[in-house]
Amino acid sequence: MIDTALHTGSEHPDLLWILVPSFLTFVAGLGVAAYADRIREWFRPEGSTTTE
């Protein structure tokens, strides 16, 4: 029972195929969040009215 609770899946044969894309997606999300205002300006035409 305790062995099941302590199992982390570190012996999974495709662990790198799970961790690397997850990490890259996380970093991409941080990048998008950091530049969200600039990205929003690309899609919002100048002089448009929005409710914020």
Secondary structure layout:
Layout (H helix, E strand, L loop, with lengths): L1 H5 L8 H20 L1 H8 L9
Keywords: Membrane, Transmembrane, Transmembrane helix
Describe this structure in words.
The mean pLDDT is 79. This protein has one domain (1-42). It has 3 helices and no strands. It starts with a helix and ends in a 9-residue tail after the last helix. The chain has 52 residues and is mostly helical.
Features:
rod-shaped
Given as residue ranges, the uncertain stretches (5+ residues, pLDDT < 50) are none
Order of helical and strand elements: HHH
Into which percentage range does the β-strand content fall?
under 5%
Proportion of helical residues:
55-70%
Q: What is the number of beta strands? A: 0
Structural class: mainly alpha
Spatial shape: rod-shaped
Short summary:
This protein has 52 residues and is mostly helical.
